UniProtKB/TrEMBL annotation:
Keyword Transferase: yes
InterPro entries for the chain: a-kinase_dom, Kinase-like_dom_sf
Recorded superkingdom: Eukaryota
GO molecular function: ATP binding; protein serine/threonine kinase activity
Domain Alpha-type protein kinase: 1-248
Full protein name: Alpha-type protein kinase domain-containing protein
Pfam families, alphabetized: Alpha_kinase (PF02816)
Lineage of source species: Eukaryota, Fungi, Dikarya, Basidiomycota, Agaricomycotina
UniProt keywords, alphabetically: Kinase, Serine/threonine-protein kinase, Transferase
């Protein structure tokens, strides 16, 4: 159980499986996620033990469609970074002085279960009873799962002497590229997972992007985008001349 969703071990078998990715084999191990709300006994303080409450199907599906939308855009924005890197490296006169990590976001999809109205033909289902976010499993031990960058700060959560710090610097660099290539409008935050697979991102957007429609949910802290140039600290990835990125922030990390 996290702050907003519960996660459960499950498996997926599709009637017409794809050739690769989520559901491409029978009994494909997955993570099944559902949003929840804390339900406290009536009249009791919020620090008391709570029960897990589920949302109405309409609200649950809206929340998870938004989560899936965030993952969709995060995949695209990370792909933009790798396209940028590959073009820069191909056109540079000097080789990269460091390795580029290759990471991606988990494969995911939505599943809805329905009540069946027996008075109607079997092909016509009625309203949804529940919605689930299905995600690829991130292998490894619990302690290997790391939050690298929080959505309140565009710099690594890890200290320089901690394992994974250089990878966190790379993720901070990806934010710099996304910000620069979108004209200061958007970047990924809440980077978490391991150095091969990431999950549960947030999309940070400039206030002009969504016109107050809150496209990406409560984790979209617009102030983080408007303050990016003063708060982001460039590191050795950002500073490589072949990338030709404008330097932001304070001292180079």
């Amino acid at each position: 159980m996290g702050g907003f969703k519960t996660a459960h071990a499950g498996w997926l078998t599709l009637m017409s499986p794809p050739t690769s990715g989520l559901g491409s084999r029978a009994r494909h191990d997955i993570v099944v996620k559902r949003p929840f709300q804390k339900v406290y006994p009536k009249g009791m303080p919020a620090n008391m033990e709570f029960k897990i409450g589920r949302f109405a199907p309409k609200d649950e599906s809206a929340k998870l469609f938004r989560e899936a939308n965030v993952l969709y855009w995060a995949k695209a924005l990370l792909g933009l970074v790798y396209d940028f890197i590959d073009r820069a490296v191909a056109g540079a006169s000097d080789p990269l002085p460091f390795d580029i990590p290759r990471v991606r976001f988990v494969e995911a999809g939505l599943a809805l279960s329905y009540y069946q109205d027996n008075s109607k033909p079997a092909s016509k289902v009625t309203s949804a009873r529940a919605c689930f976010l299905l995600e690829e499993v991130i292998d490894g031990r619990d302690e290997d799962f790391v939050k690298y960058i929080h959505n309140m700060d565009p710099n690594p959560l890890l200290d320089p002497d901690e394992s994974g710090y250089d990878f966190a610097l790379f993720l901070a660099f990806t934010q710099h590229v996304q910000y620069a290539k979108t004209g200061g409008l958007v970047f990924i935050s809440d980077y978490q997972g391991n150095d091969k697979l990431l999950t549960d991102p947030q999309i940070m957007t400039h206030p002009s992007v969504s016109e107050q429609k809150d496209m990406f949910g409560g984790g979209n802290i617009e102030k983080a985008v408007s303050e990016f140039e003063t708060r982001h600290i460039c590191n050795h990835f950002c500073k490589w001349p072949g990338f030709e990125l404008e330097e932001f922030g304070g001292e180079v990390a």
